[in-house]
Amino acid sequence: MKLFSAKQIYKADQITTKKQGIAGEELMERASLQLFNWMHLRMQGAPVKIHLFCGIGNNGGDGIALARHLLEHGYNIAVYVVNYSEKRSEDFLINLARLKERKCWPNFMNSDDELPVIGKDDIIVDGIFGIGINRTPDAWVIKLIQHLNNSQAFILSIDIPSGLFSDQSPKDFDAIIKSNYVLSFQAPKLTFFLPESGPYVEQWEALDIGLDVDYLSSTETAYELIGKNEVLTVYRPREKYAHKGTYGHVLILGGSYGKIGAVCLSSKAALHAGCGLVTAYLPAVGYSILQTSLPEIMVLTDKDEKIITDITFEIDPTIIGVGMGMGTDDKTIMAFGSFLKSNEKPLVLDADAINILSKHKDLLKHLPKDTILTPHPKELERLIGKWKNDFDKLNKVKKFSDQHQCVVVIKGANTIVVQNGKGYVNTTGNPGMATAGSGDVLTGIISGLRAQGYSALNAAVFGVYLHGKAGDIAVEKTGYQSMVATDLISNLGNAYLDLFQIPEQPQPSEAEPEAQQ
Ligand SMILES: NC(=O)C1=CN([C@@H]2O[C@H](COP(=O)(O)OP(=O)(O)OC[C@H]3O[C@@H](n4cnc5c(N)ncnc54)[C@H](OP(=O)(O)O)[C@@H]3O)[C@@H](O)[C@H]2O)[C@@H](O)CC1
Ligand SMILES: Nc1ncnc2c1ncn2[C@@H]1O[C@H](COP(=O)(O)OP(=O)(O)O)[C@@H](O)[C@H]1O
Ligand SMILES: [K+]
Question: What residues does K(+) bind to (predicted)?
């Protein structure tokens, strides 16, 4: 699903009204009817108090139009106009007049007004600011936002939580509505998925308001949301006459004394991701551990007992995954440096391989094109330096990936894969995955996919999706706290199977007569 910028949404709005020959207020009417239908379906006329807080722009206009529909269906509403500017939008004014015609008089709130009492079982509709916010709100509006956040009432935001900017980071995090549910027009916004602003969106849903389909489908966006539909388009089916050579040979290179487990996890994950062969290359101490615990995996050892000191081998792998548990001993750095200078195989680099690159930036020029790097936030900071906020981080990563022609996997709650100036935002995964070794599993999965012939970008995007999906399936049996990295590997098969599961269709109830032929 495309993640449009505010500029693109305004453009879609313009093109839609022009092509469909409708006025802006008709589009607002469509939007507010969608909001109303969503609420009415769930509330079925329940007499719960609904407080609608509306700004003076089009987001407020949506709120005022929604208030009219709720009123006409007998809902118990209170409408407030948050009067933060004199510049009211035209469509807001049209809808305000329509509401007044129905004898509903909003409460006009100004800076020195008392804050309204809100019960914790009430519902708040947040239509204060939409994607048109362009500066930090005034202090009294921030006070109102805080008051709503502290009310414990359920908050339903129109389009975007008020105070969040769709394409940049807010400066004041006290000035943002903490939404329980966001009904976002046409598509969600990138900001819903970033670590700083994501916590303001508990749940979201996109409402189709019929924006021009040609514009939406032909417009390139800087970010895309990755779900099942998107990964199904890259999935490569297994062929009947295939043999293990068809699916590539992964070499997993890493480990040090006390961290052999990292190599075990990556190697096993690569195999479960479907590659034909896996060899692990690790310090001698790891030999028996690997051969005993993972009989399907071949092992090569360094001459050193505890660390990697020399990376040379006779085998011909399809792709090499490096860095898990490897350490940053001087001898390992030397070995990794000379390996990079002579290597021509595609690479997936994680953990200490990234840490070494961060300290020895001269080595970056030896990365083969399309190398995949999978840093967690600390490793990323070592690699690209500190960032001011999430948007600054994304821009820095795009620059780094362009400069070094690589794919960067920004790991986190919504992992984002970056290549060629575009970001792919993953939707699977859960906090149970914040556990030792889950990153090692991801490197293994991506390496396993790359070996099977997936492009670097597709291996990263699909690998991140499968990893998260395996976590989502695993958590149903383990719960968040007791999930461990091995559970991700055990559920990788289920994650593959889930790709082809069709959601169950609701069955007609027995009471309903069957349709006549
Ligand atoms: N195609 C779609 O998706 C459709 C979208 N629709 C809806 O339109 C919404 C966008 O509406 P919008 O452009 O009128 O902006 P909105 O967010 O209501 O802000 C109002 C104005 O306030 C101002 N302002 C900004 N920051 C401020 C601040 N801190 N303190 C004080 N003032 C501030 C600023 O004006 P300025 O003062 O800068 O001139 C701004 O213009 C969108 O989110 C969706 O709900 C639907 O109606 C149907 C189709
Ligand atoms: N809250 C979360 N939601 C979803 N995924 C998460 C969350 N926390 C961590 N993960 C995922 O778990 C993995 C952790 O990687 P990493 O920190 O490198 O672990 P390790 O070094 O222990 O192997 C990443 O793929 C990350 O995206
Ligand atoms: K809003």
Answer: 59, 126, 162
